[in-house]
Amino acid sequence: MLSTLLVIFAPFIFLVENGYHLYWSLTGSAGIAILLTSATFSIAVFPLQRWSKRFESKIAFRLKAATEEISKLDNSLKGEARFNEIEKIYVRNKYHPIQSIALGLSFFVTIPFLIASLLLFIQSDILSGAQFLFIDDLQMPDGTLMLGSLSINILPLMLFIFTFLDAMVRYKDNPSIMNRFMFVSVVLTFLVYSMPAGLLLYWIGANIISFIIYWISTFLAVK
After folding, report:
1. DSSP designation for 145
2. How far apart (Å, rounded) are the C-alpha atoms in residues 135 and 142?
3. What stretch of H or E contains 152?
């Protein structure tokens, strides 16, 4: 399975790795190189993200219109009769339930680079011994907070906070998608808790840049 993923995402891994090496050679800092690499590819996928967001909005509008019509149906309609009326409403609004899969697409277009960074940082010693701010080794979990003899990793918690806030702002008008991403945020935190600090730094950087781009584009659209 892992070897298959490495083959599938090889082009993205190549880009992330070479981006990291380029920025490291320019800055001499592994942490800054990670953040700059993360920012570079977050900005690079922005045009696709923007198109995805417009597509999401179109589907969400159709879903809302269809849902409002369905809510007005006579409650006495049951079984096949109700099903047929709902189908007519869907056709009228050019909506099909399968289109709901596209909701959240603007987030998923960033997945290839996030997976590439995961495969790169857990499969190589590229970050071994590299320090950044309060992190002694970016190849290891950060273990920043000490409670007695227990070390707690801060970066996974930071990732959770940023993902949580991003979902609240980005999908505030669509509770179902927002709840889906809240759930993803919790699951993701547990999955990545013991991952290398460098990987978490990359994902946090990607989340922050993505949110900033989203906020700016939303502000300009309103203007």
Report:
1. E
2. 6
3. strand 150-152
H helix or E strand, kind and range, residue 151: strand 150-152
Tokens of 52: 């995805």
Tell me how far apart the alpha carbons of residues 57 and 105 are, in angstroms, rounded to a whole number: 11
| Successive 10-residue mean pLDDT values, the chain, 223 residues | 71 84 89 89 76 71 76 70 76 70 61 80 79 82 71 82 77 70 77 84 84 71 50
pLDDT for the residue 146: 64
Cβ within 8 Å of residue 220, ≥6 positions away: none
Q: For position 208, what pLDDT does the model report?
A: 83
Query: What letter would DSSP give residue 135?
Result: B
Phi, psi (deg, nearest 5) at residue 146: -105, 125
From CA 31, how far away is CA 23, in angstroms rounded?
10
Q: Please, are residues 35 and 205 in contact by the beta-carbon 8 Å criterion?
A: yes
Helix (H, G, I), strand (E, B) or coil at 150: strand
pLDDT of residue 222: 47
Query: Are 203 and 182 contacting, i.e. CB atoms less than 8 angstroms apart?
Result: no
Rounded Cα distance, 159 and 196, in Å: 13
- Burial group, residue 39, by CB count within 10 angstroms (0-12, 13-18, 19+): buried
Cα–Cα distance list, 40 to 91, 96, 137, 197 (Å): 42, 36, 23, 19
